[in-house]
Amino acid sequence: MGRRDTYFYKVFKVYTQLWKFQQENRQKLVEAGLRRWEIGEIASRIGQLYFGQYMQTSDANYLSESYIFYEAILTREYFKEGMFQDVNIANKQLRFLARFIMVCLVLNRREMVQQLVNQLKVLVDECKRAFQVCPC
Predict the structure, then answer these.
(1) Which GO terms describe its molecular function (predicted)?
(2) Within a 10 A sphere around the Cβ of 17, how many other Cβ atoms?
């Protein structure tokens, strides 16, 4: 096992434990202030890990797992709340969409690519309006 594989498995193990912990303790964590976008951030990191491992190994199982996490983020709209009040959350949503588009392109899921590209265009336009910079 190479150094990168060792790193992947260690990081993946930590994120898997974190994901399981937040699932088992969601109500308590939400009551303590955990936000939906933070849950989405964890899921997005796991999707990134899977995609990165796919890029290293060409093992399509990693790509499929990445798709599963990204699709869950999309359908559960983890980044929707507060997106136009906080540029950092909007940035996370934009980056997530770009990554998900890459995964869908590699998987040749054309309909999903088109849906995501349309969503990305709309989101970029909405972000331009919401976060206009003063030309002072």
Answers:
(1) transcription corepressor activity
(2) 10
Instruction: Give, for all 136 residues of the chain, the pLDDT tens digit.
Output: 577 778 888 888 898 898 899 889 888 988 999 898 998 999 999 999 999 999 999 999 999 999 999 999 999 999 888 778 888 888 999 999 999 999 999 999 999 999 999 999 999 998 888 888 666 5
Q: What is the dihedral of CA 112, 113, 115, 121, to 10 degrees?
A: 160
Give the separation between CA 124 and CA 91, rounded to whole angstroms.
10
Chain position carrying tokens 């997005």:
44
Instruction: Report domain extents, the chain.
Output: 3-130
Angstrom distance (rounded) from CA 91 to CA 73: 15
